[in-house]
Design brief:
about 325 residues; alpha/beta; D-Maltodextrin-Binding Protein, domain 2; 2 domains; ten-stranded mixed β-sheet; 13 helices
Length: about 325
């Protein structure tokens, strides 16, 4: 009788231990609760749209809700700072971009740096296109460069604002070619592009999404794309690196998921795999191509190299232009 009681107690103890281990495993498996993806821009912006498609895919494949939270303000700094301060447990992610993660901390006194984040998954890259009014007298990009170089200070270039990605892209192009032109910053790219179309401003870089429609209606001339790869949305526009002496010219903004530094690499690997698999589907390629974006299913280690290279690129460029936060003090 006593032996039977002891056996039952032992069995019960083993069962409790196994139940505890199973429960602990279930709690430890990532994700086991809702995940917030912070978009540091308003709803409907490119980063927001790109992130929503990924959030749906992650929710379906990982069995937990990934929801979008828009925290706009200060050029992406408000939402980015929120994520930088969050617990590094994988349950608060940033839908980041070159502007908010890399450029903004170099220009402004943000409470974070690019190093305060680690990659969770690259989503897409957004190259820009060099354009002038349709009637500008240059048949190709090398003729354009020649005209601009031979007339220092005569011509102008527009951007969506001081320190914006398209502004810095144009500055890199100018410096690489020895061009002296006058910068005309705008509050947003739509007005800037309108003035380039009319010839009020000579040239600018703008996103593929902005350029594609007006290019087809012959309202502008496109001379080259900023990335080394052609855009699937505008395959007829050659890379600047391919048709000029700037053989290393390769600048494109990115959109990707990031997490607070020291977040578990194992947890982020689960996100990385789902996103990489999705980006290789015809649905994803079609969706992002329609937005003028190029899908880029690279690993998180490669993503980190992209961010590091951008920090170096833009730090050097901003220093040359005297636009860093140190210069503004």
């Amino acid at each position: 009788m006593l032996g039977t009681v002891k056996q039952n107690i032992a069995r019960a103890a083993i069962t409790i231990v196994m139940m505890g281990a199973t429960a602990g495993w279930a709690q430890d498996k990532y994700p086991n609760k809702t995940v917030e993806i912070v978009v540091p821009w308003t709803a409907g912006q490119a980063t927001d749209i790109a992130a929503r498609a990924i959030a749906n895919e992650l929710s379906e494949k990982l069995g937990q809700t990934f929801f979008i939270s828009n925290k706009a303000g200060a050029g992406g700094a408000v939402g980015s700072a929120y994520v930088a301060r969050a617990k590094n447990d994988g349950y608060t992610l940033l839908a980041g971009s070159t502007g908010s993660v890399v450029i903004s901390p170099l220009l402004n006194d943000t409470p974070y740096e690019a190093s305060d984040f680690v990659p969770a998954a690259m989503i897409a890259k957004s190259p820009s296109v060099l354009v002038t009014a349709a009637d500008f007298p240059a048949k190709n990009i090398n003729e354009l460069i020649k005209v601009l170089k031979e007339n220092p200070g005569k011509y102008t270039f527009a951007s969506s604002g001081n320190g914006s990605a398209t502004h810095l892209m144009a500055e890199a192009f100018n410096l690489g070619n020895g061009i002296e032109a006058v910068h005309v910053p705008y509050k947003g790219s739509s007005t800037a592009l309108t003035d380039v179309q009319s010839g009020r401003v000579t040239y600018m870089f703008d996103t593929v999404a902005s350029i594609a429609g007006i290019l087809k209606s012959n309202q502008v001339t496109a001379y080259g794309i900023s990335s080394k790869e052609r855009s699937a949305s505008l395959p007829e526009v050659p890379p600047i690196a391919e048709v000029t002496e700037l053989k290393d010219f390769d600048i494109a903004s990115w959109i990707g998921l990031m997490a607070p530094k020291e977040t578990s690499a194992q947890d982020l690997a689960a996100i990385e795999k789902v996103v990489q698999d999705y980006l290789q589907t015809p649905e994803a390629k079609s969706r992002y191509q329609g937005m003028g974006l190029g899908v880029d299913p690279i690993s998180n280690s490669e993503f980190q190299k992209v961010v590091d290279a951008e920090v170096t690129l833009y730090s050097d460029l901003l220093n040359k232009l005297g636009l860093t936060k140190e210069h503004s003090k």
